[in-house]
């Protein structure tokens, strides 16, 4: 994926954010779905950058390879069985 990888802290959480496009471009926030990462936007961000837009594609909670939150209820996925 082109662009640069930034790391930002929000409270006790750390998120990786892929940024692409001109610094003065209008910002576009790209959110991935479950169970994807910011890399799912790799085919789109160069096109948006060429159009003059600045893209921000964060790895959402629990998906940043660099760091996820400490084990907590907000990141657990419960499997239901019958």
TrEMBL record:
InterPro entries: AB_hydrolase_1 (IPR000073), AB_hydrolase_fold (IPR029058)
Domain AB hydrolase-1: 27-72
Biased composition range(s): Basic residues: 70-82
Residue numbers spanned by region Disordered: 59-82
Signal peptide: none
Keywords: Hydrolase
Pfam families, per database record: Abhydrolase_1 (PF00561)
Gene Ontology molecular functions: hydrolase activity
Keyword Transcription regulation in annotation: no
Protein name per its UniProtKB record: Alpha/beta fold hydrolase
Naturally occurring in which organism (per UniProt): Blastococcus brunescens
């Amino acid at each position: 994926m082109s662009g640069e990888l930034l790391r930002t802290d929000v409270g006790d959480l750390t998120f990786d954010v892929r940024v692409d496009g001109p610094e003065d471009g209008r910002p576009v926030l790209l959110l991935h779905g479950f169970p994807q990462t910011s890399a799912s936007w790799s085919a789109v961000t160069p096109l948006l950058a060429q159009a003059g837009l600045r893209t921000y594609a964060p790895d959402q909670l629990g998906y940043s390879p660099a760091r996820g939150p400490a084990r907590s209820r907000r990141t657990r996925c419960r499997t239901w069985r019958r």
